[in-house]
Amino acid sequence: xxxxxxxxxxxxxxxxxxxxxxxxxxxxxxxxxxxxxxxxxxxxxxxxxxxxxxxxxxxxxxxxxxxxxxxxxxxxxxxxxxxxxxxxxxxxxxxxxxxxxxxxxxxxxxxxxxxxxxxxxxxxxxxxxxxxxxxxxxxxxxxxxxxxxxxxxxxxxxxxxxxxxxxxxxxxxxxxxxxxxxxxxxxxxxxxxxxxxxxxxxxxxx
Length: 206
Fold this sequence. Notes:
Strand content: 5-15%
CATH architecture of the largest domain: 3-Layer(aba) Sandwich
Radius of gyration: 17 Å
CATH class of the largest domain: Alpha Beta
Order of helices and strands: EEHHHHHEHEHEHHEHEH
CATH topology of the largest domain: Rossmann fold
Oligomer: single chain
Shape: globular
Largest sheet: 5 strands, parallel
Structural class: alpha/beta
Number of helices: 11
């Protein structure tokens, strides 16, 4: 693959986690629970702006209250206990090769993650400090993507100007917000898509 010429080598690389570095079955499994399935773009957008999801991933409601609200909002036919068991299992693990990619990138750049998360999903993983210089999660910070405040806080935590950051996310709305703030944002579709883009940007060995 030919290397694309980019104006500035970024100081920081900022990553979403689910669907980018971590394998997630959120949308596939959620679609299975719906009375009528949605296409990929529709279910992602509905999830991103879901009132119950936002409250839970902002850390404002308990898991039990989230289950009650989510089941009502999405009209699911299962108990709160059954839903929470399903929900907790949806994030899987880092994609094969993802941690090695981060180690390679970290030789020349500082790395951060900015993830919409919640205690149930966050608790499935270990210490993110081994993989990132800065690890930011919505339920701990009280800010959430695609709200601009989440990106402003990320820039502040990293101590960097927007133009010195490349941001990678699988959700178009999040990338759009990043771009509106002067961050160089890129939408990717899974880890292989991310690797291909990093190579084309000259950030990762071919």
